[in-house]
Design a protein that fits this description.
single chain; globular; mainly alpha; two-stranded antiparallel sheet; about 625 residues
Length: about 625
């Protein structure tokens, strides 16, 4: 196998792993191994090393370092450690894109293969619900990524990239395949029922058309893919078994089979349309008339959308939770985002420079939230960075975006022909990620951020030249960093396995084995609460109340700004009969999370402890 083919195979495997295995430890370890090994070979002169893209890589690594430093002041240091690991994995995808060295068009092809496989698998799960564990329950399309907005982002990226490759394909067969993948992307986009996803995709297609040399041909190709997709998705919207949660399994199976047939029929219609477009050559007059008609239709649609937004301005500001069905497309409520953004603002105001610690929004927001709803991020990547890592982290993110934008624009400008068309599509795919990042949290999903950063790396390196000089010291340093990152990723995972071993040992009443497993988990991940809670459970089952109490106190000392360890400590003290101490620690938990679900549960231990204290018993 030739070197370019090896690079394509490695890149495709890496991207497929991200899309199908997501945030698993195996995806992270694979990405770090690939990037570290590939980079070391390049620095040893065995593979091309790009001249460009170093600033983008340096800024992403600086972001990882700052996330790691935030462990020192984080309200949940184990989560900040997770963020360090995630950013290092992201950097691995960026480095893989930089090292790809096969050009923008090849990079686009590899991305289309990976994204296309994920989208086709998602649609197969709609046709055959048994393919996914919850295929008979959840209606919105989300697998294999696991989150509908992330799947919609993947579909939007596939749509633009597949249309671009279809437009420049030299054979009719390849043109049909790419157009069919674009068709599948539109169907998946609609069945994911992501309003942000549809809006971003429309903006992306518009931007892609603007960058295309022959906009009329490109627009006709997009219509050939989109019209059958709208028809198939429109039929699916009329079938409650396909778009409503909790429907009977028999109905899902029956309607899923019909959906599968219609999906194939739609693909045949796309093939016929593409073939007809390839046969017909537009005269200059017909081209001008079509251009005016398409421009008029686009302007009318934009005007109607603007009027709708103005007429529903009050709905935009509202925050009621939108239902998970196609009716959500007719609603423009912020869907609780306003509350989450305000909570992020409270965290920024509390510590504007450093933040509460990377990836700690779920914990840190509890002091400010008004209800017990759970959310991991504020659904805005800039606010996520500002709340977690302060203005320093936000500045690094903005610098990374700016450097990435310069690299993408530079690639489009210096390339020509098919390479320019592919580079433009890759740049638009990055723009789609940025649009999602304003109102969602794609940073948390390697399934979409990994491909986006791979695309950025390929753009930064495309057309910029490569070197093959030997840098043995640099290769050794990169290998050492990769090994350190692998160890950083692996140790929390091994700690989780040890915590599970504790539970299994307790079921067998193997107290010594459970205690050893808890100690091993704590040594592997000294920042996490779970090993400490596991040790407390061991001592409770062993009947050693003093040791169990000490473990709960250790947990509270480990994360004093987290309400959960204080709550567990207070509950155990109440169990031991020390209601005076229980009141102090339960009240501390209440102060950190006054809207928590604990306070609505019965019996209300905090109320009982407070009454005990108010009765003069302490």
């Amino acid at each position: 196998m030739r070197r370019p083919q090896v690079a394509e195979a490695v890149a495709a495997a890496l991207l497929l792993g991200a899309l199908f295995a997501g945030d698993s430890v195996w995806t992270a370890l694979g990405a770090l191994l690939v990037a570290g090994g590939w980079g070391a070979l390049a620095l040893l002169g065995r593979a091309p090393w790009p001249r460009g893209g170093r600033l983008v890589l340096a800024l992403l690594l600086a972001t990882a370092v700052w996330s790691g430093l935030s462990i020192a002041w984080s309200v949940a240091p184990d989560r900040s450690w997770d963020e360090l690991d995630r950013t290092l994995v992201h950097a691995s995808f960026l480095l893989a894109g930089l090292l790809f060295a096969a050009g923008a068009r090849r990079a686009a092809q590899v991305l289309v293969v990976a994204l296309g496989a994920a989208i086709l698998w998602a649609l197969a799960g709609k046709a055959i619900p048994a393919l996914f564990p919850d295929g008979g329950r959840a209606a919105r399309l989300r697998d294999p990524i696991g989150y509908w907005n992330a799947l919609a982002l993947a579909a939007g990226m596939l749509l633009v990239l597949a249309l671009s490759l279809a437009g420049t394909a030299r054979s009719l067969a390849l043109r049909v395949v790419c157009a069919a993948l674009a068709y599948a992307a539109v169907v998946a986009l609609l069945l994911a029922a992501s309003r942000a996803g549809v809006a971003a995709a429309l903006l992306g297609v518009g931007l892609w058309l603007w960058l295309e040399r022959d906009r009329v041909e490109a627009a006709l190709l997009a219509l050939a893919a989109a019209v059958p997709a709208l028809a198939v998705a429109g039929w699916a919207f009329t079938r409650p078994a396909l778009v409503d949660d909790g429907r009977a399994e028999a109905d899902r199976v029956a309607d899923g089979a019909v959906f599968g047939v219609l999906l194939l029929v739609g693909a045949l219609l796309v093939a016929a349309g593409v073939r007809e477009l390839a046969r017909r050559r537009l005269t200059p007059r017909a081209r001008r008339r079509l251009a005016r008609g398409l421009a008029g239709a686009a302007a009318a649609a934009a005007l109607a959308l603007a009027i709708g937004l103005v007429a529903n301005a009050d709905s935009i500001a509202s925050e009621f939770e939108v239902q998970n069905d196609p009716g959500r497309f007719l609603t423009i409520s912020s869907n609780n985002r306003g509350a989450w953004w305000r909570e992020a603002g409270d965290l920024i105001a509390a510590d504007p420079l450093l933040g509460a610690g990377a990836n700690t929004f779920e914990i840190a927001r509890k002091r400010y939230r008004e209800n017990a709803s759970a959310v991991t991020q504020p659904h805005s990547v800039p606010l996520q960075f500002a709340a977690g890592t302060g203005l320093v982290g936000l500045a690094l993110l903005l610098a990374l975006v700016g450097a990435g934008a310069i690299a993408a624009v530079g690639a489009v400008r210096r390339l020509d022909g098919d390479e320019r068309a592919a580079a433009a599509a890759l740049a638009v795919a990055l723009a789609l990620w940025l649009v999602h990042a304003l109102v969602d949290y794609p940073w948390d999903f390697v399934a979409v951020t990994g491909p986006a950063l791979f695309a950025l790396g390929a753009l930064a390196a495309a057309g910029g030249g490569f070197v093959l000089n030997q840098h043995k010291l640099g290769a050794a340093a990169l290998a050492a960093v990769a090994l350190a990152a692998i160890a950083s990723v692996a140790t929390p995972w091994l700690a989780e396995r040890s915590v599970r071993d504790v539970s299994r040992a307790l079921e067998r009443n193997d107290l010594d084995g459970a205690r050893d497993a808890a100690e091993e988990a704590r040594s592997l991940d000294p920042l996490s609460l779970e090993p400490v809670f596991a040790r407390a459970r061991v001592e409770e089952q062993a009947g050693d109340e003093a040791a169990a109490l000490a473990a709960y106190r250790d947990a509270a000392e480990l994360q004093p700004e987290n309400p959960e360890p204080w709550y567990q400590l207070g509950l155990y003290e109440f169990h031991l009969g020390d209601r005076c101490s229980a009141y102090v620690h339960l009240n501390r938990s209440y102060t950190l999370d006054p809207a928590g679900i604990h306070w609505g549960e019965k019996p209300r231990r905090l109320d009982e402890a407070r009454a005990w204290v108010n009765g003069g018993n302490c």
